Amino acid sequence: MTLNINNNLLKKNNNIINSLREKIRRIENKEIEVIPSSLGKHKYSKAILPRVISLDFQQIDPALPWHGLPISGLHEIYGDVISGIGFSTALIVKASKIYEEKNIRPQILWCQKEDDLCAQGFYEFGVDPNNLIIAKCANSNDVLWAMEEGLRSNCLTAVVGKIDKISSIAGKRLQLASENAATMGILIRNSLNNSFSGNSHTLTKWRVNPSPNFQNTNIWTNHPRWNLELQKYKLSMARGEKLKNAGEPKSWLVEWNNETSNLSVVTNISGRPNRTQSNWTIAV
């Protein structure tokens, strides 16, 4: 009798512990709810998505405090514009896969002033042009307005903006809209000189340039390569060892595979300092 009582008590305790562990896991992972626009804004139409996408689980993911890239938040990409477009498209493909696994059609809003996007190129890269909404804007203010409206709609997979200048206040507004709507926001910077200052509100900041062997290669090739540098992430997200090493630059030579939709590190140059960048900024 005593043994049976102990066994029942042990099972009950195990159930409680497992339940608490699941709650802790959800709090730490911050799984997010999205409302697919095709289903309408009803409680039953909400879908639960993981909060991060994996870039490269062996080297790049561990360098980020979320152990992956959040799909909810604003990310800045600058350097070579063509490479930045390629890397941004890779992120969109990664985020879209999560929605497709939940049988949700991904929808992307792309805002810019230029008229130079190629539908066939997006298709070859892994983005269905039918899921892409292009907003051609007259100026930078219109790009920011379109991005914010798209983020606040709470029905898009990602919102991309290719822009010259942006103030810290505008960046904060986009970041808040992106977090509240559980939508990935991507800023492609046209100029290094106009890059955000250290007090920007982006979750991450990346510098992307073509690999030396791919300087004259079209970004829509099957295996484009980029020199990818993680310039900063929000310091408040770091814990433990990542907080200790938060200011150290991280860089990789990466390759994108259109067929598998995977980003992989092809040469281990992680952690090498960038001699052209003397001050590494961390947002707080």
Keywords:
alpha/beta, two-stranded antiparallel ribbon, globular, 13 strands, 7 helices, 284 residues, 32% helix, 24% strand, nine-stranded mixed beta sheet
| Number of strand elements | 13
**What is the chain-wise order of helices and strands?**
HEEEHEEHEHEHEHEEEHEE
Q: Uncertain spans, ≥5 residues at pLDDT below 50? A: 37-44, 193-199, 269-284
Strand content: 15-25%
Helix content: 25-40%
**Structural class by secondary-structure content:** alpha/beta
Number of helices: 7
Morphology call: globular
Radius of gyration: 21 Å
Largest sheet, strands/sense/barrel:
9 strands, mixed
Task: State the separation between the terminal residues, measured CA to CA.
Answer: 59 Å
Give the strand order, joined by hyphens, for the main sheet: 7-6-8-9-5-10-11-12-13
Q: Average pLDDT, to the nearest integer? A: 77
Describe the protein's architecture and organization.
There is one protein chain. The chain is an alpha/beta fold and 284 residues long. The protein is 32% helix and 24% strand. The chain contains seven helices and 13 strands. A nine-stranded mixed β-sheet has the order 7-6-8-9-5-10-11-12-13, with helices on both faces. The protein has a two-stranded antiparallel sheet with strand order 1-2. α6 links the parallel β8 and β9. α5 runs parallel beside α6. The C terminus is likely disordered.
